[in-house]
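Fold in tokens:
===
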Amino acid sequence: MIGYTLGMISLTPDECRVLGVLVEKELTTPEQYPLTLNAIVNGSSQKSNREPVVSFDEGRAYEAVEGLRGKGLAVRVDTAGSRVPKYRHNATAKLQLSRYELVILAELLLRGPQTMGELRGRASRMHHLESLEIVEEMLKKMMGRDEPLVRELGASPGSRSERYMQLLCPDAHPEEAGVEARESAGSGGSLSERMEKLEGAMAKLREVVRRMSVSLGEGDPFSAEGDGETGGAEKEE
């Protein structure tokens, strides 16, 4: 039985970023973990493996990591001989995650909605994911909880692959959230409806151009005669 209630855990975008950083650095640079506040600033502001790229300062990082502490997702570590406190995440225990689930969730926190293929390739830098089947199994486990951590999105434009997003803070990647909201609302309609609208818009545009051309004494650019008259200009372009 899952030992937490997701409904009681709502993260801010900054808390999502810092939690993802704590998980990532534990697995990619264990010799520098737990992290100092300065390391959290650098990790949260780095330009690689982050979407969107943002700039943190110590105040912003401190507020986020203390917010995570208050929600049981981070722990402050005071060690003998160290002049500054350090922090580590507690997501594995708090959210009852396997290592596979942990790295997939961290990747979603750091970069937003992604396909299974993207998740496998990117999260494997933290912990090797042997196959897409493992990624799919972990996603299903996180989606199948009483309080899901992940949900499936539609494919992005030009792709056939479904994407997945984390639910600890659905607004952490507002641009993606806006795309999904438009997709969910069905604003585009079916393919035939979208094509019909596009053809209507093109017809209106052609009519505007035709009228302007005629008013300038250049004839109808869309007629066979008009095409012949303007052929020289079209070749020059």
In short: The domain at 6-184 is CATH 1.10.10.10 (Arc Repressor Mutant, subunit A). The chain has eleven helices and six strands.
